[in-house]
Write a structure and sequence with these properties.
By secondary structure, the protein is mainly α. The chain has one helix and no strands. The longest helix is centred in the C-terminal third of the chain and has 30 residues, at 18-47. It starts with 17 loop residues before the first helix and ends with a helix.
């Protein structure tokens, strides 16, 4: 394991960019919302 993969508190694990992680979480949430909307649209078309 390289030193760039270790945290400054004794090498417990990789350092994560919190802003980058939040961006990924937001992308997942947006994709989930689009999936729900697509399913709802198809269900309405099916029953219409």
């Amino acid at each position: 394991m390289s030193t760039s993969d270790q945290s400054s508190e004794g090498g417990v694990g990789p350092i994560y960019d919190e802003a980058g992680f939040d961006a990924v979480v937001n992308l997942i949430a947006a994709a989930r919302q689009r999936a729900v909307q697509a399913v709802n649209t198809q269900l309405i078309d099916l029953y219409w």
